[in-house]
């Protein structure tokens, strides 16, 4: 996923691709957690407010809860994670995308 509107907050990266706001684990989060063994992913269509509990990730070093960096509705979830959790351990953090939001206020993203 390439794009020029990338922000990072609380060990998550957020990329605006011109249509949606994609979210994934930063390399720092991957290093801090160690090898990810399980992720509790949100459901497509669910609406979140910034600060709501969004994702729970279990790894060899810790269990971590990540909060939503934005307010919006989940437009897609990377279902490949359920088939291959190692995606969240990818050296290229941009391959470790987890979900996408729609309906986000652009000013909220700009304020990150």
From TrEMBL:
InterPro entries: Biotin_lipoyl, GCV_H, GCV_H/Fam206, Single_hybrid_motif. GO terms for biological process: glycine decarboxylation via glycine cleavage system; protein lipoylation. It holds the Pfam family GCV_H. One of its GO terms (cellular component) is cytoplasm. Keywords: Lipoyl. Residues 20-102 form the Lipoyl-binding domain. The keyword Repeat does not apply. This is Glycine cleavage H-protein.
């Amino acid at each position: 996923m390439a794009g020029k509107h990338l922000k990072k907050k609380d060990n998550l990266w957020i990329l605006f691709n011109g249509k949606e706001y994609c979210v994934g684990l930063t390399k720092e989060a991957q290093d801090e957690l160690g090898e990810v063994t399980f992720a509790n992913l949100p459901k497509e269509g669910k609406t979140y407010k910034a600060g709501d509990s969004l994702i729970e990730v279990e790894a060899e070093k810790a269990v971590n809860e990540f909060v939503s960096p934005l307010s919006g509705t989940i437009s897609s979830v990377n279902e490949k994670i359920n088939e291959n959790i190692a995606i969240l351990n990818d050296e290229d953090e941009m391959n470790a995308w987890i979900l996408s939001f729609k309906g986000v206020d652009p000013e909220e993203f700009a304020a990150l």
